[in-house]
Specification:
three-stranded antiparallel beta sheet; eight-stranded parallel beta sheet; 10 helices; 298 residues; globular; alpha/beta
Length: 298
């Protein structure tokens, strides 16, 4: 059964395949004392849990949009080809610097989220003042993000990023966003878990170009990158423009998480489609954005 499900996504014999297999299928053999010790050492805290009240606030949203469709908006240059006004009556997810689109066109997403600490630090005033119906942030930023009635904090597990954690580099997908959400190299991955929790059964990705160029002028410090010029990778030159910091996108890791999200959605009878104009994301079946809008009108 496992081979039939994963063979098209993860070639036999690859390390990635074994990781994902271990996520879905528990080994029936008991670990040795040495393995137990390693696992205990690896299980370092990787998240800051939300309060019971904050958990109840999220619980009130569970399945509120069951059976609906939604659009998760990426911030690639192709987004400039989209008429976002056609999404005004749709449920939409926006992230990070989507407020530049709001400045340009007045478009505001239904749901807004930020994961990256660099984005928080470089745009804190804009993020706190940004108006969206629902705003979601990892609890690690509670000391920076203003709590309002439309602001929700969630527990974000960072194990995917921690080399000393047993879940390092292994995709995990939460079906219970009120309990935990798993980081997976992209804020879109968190939004896919949130959309699942809210009950959406069809997700369309827009503006997911899945391509990054690191300018020669950029200052690279480990996984952190500081821009010295206009941003060539997003819909607006100031998105990660001069003086702003961002992280190596690691598209291979993003792809691994997207593939896992696709499987989790399809296992529950749901679907993820790519409605981006062009770009390099081929994990999800492509659909034409304009045709989706035509169907909505009729």
């Amino acid at each position: 059964m496992f081979d039939n499900i994963f063979s098209s996504f993860f070639p036999v014999g690859t390390r990635r395949r074994q990781f994902l297999k271990s996520v879905l299928i528990k080994d029936s053999e008991n670990p040795s004392p040495v393995e137990e010790f390693i696992l205990r050492k690896a299980a370092t805290p990787v998240c800051k849990k939300i309060t019971t009240r904050e958990q109840n606030e999220l619980d009130a949203l569970k399945n509120c949009f069951k059976g609906k469709r939604c659009f998760i908006i990426g911030n690639g240059p192709s987004l400039n080809k989209c008429d976002l006004s056609s999404l005004q009556d749709e449920f939409t997810f926006g992230v990070n610097g989507i407020f530049y689109k709001t400045d340009e066109s007045g478009f505001t997403p239904s749901f807004y989220m930020v994961e990256d600490g660099h984005v928080i630090d470089d745009n804190l005033d804009r993020i706190n003042s940004y108006e969206a119906k629902f705003k979601f942030f990892p609890s690690i930023y509670k000391n920076k993000i203003e709590k309002r009635d439309n602001t929700f904090f969630f527990t974000m597990d960072l194990g995917f990023y921690r080399k000393n954690n047993r879940s390092y580099g292994i995709p995990r997908f939460s079906e219970n966003f009120d309990t935990v959400a798993y980081a997976g190299q992209s804020v879109t991955y968190l939004n896919l878990q949130l959309a699942y929790y809210l009950g959406f059964d069809t997700v369309y990705l827009v503006g997911m170009d899945f391509h990054y160029d690191i300018p020669e002028s950029a200052i690279i410090n480990g996984l952190s990158i500081e821009s010295m010029d206009d941003d060539p990778n997003h819909f607006h030159p100031e998105y990660f423009g001069k003086g702003k910091k961002w992280h190596d996108p690691k598209l291979d890791s993003v792809a691994m998480n997207y593939e896992f999200a696709k499987i989790k959605y399809e296992q529950s009878g749901r679907r993820i489609f790519n409605a981006t104009y062009g770009g390099n994301l081929e994990i999800f079946e492509r659909v034409d954005f304009d045709s989706l809008m035509e169907k909505a009108v009729t």
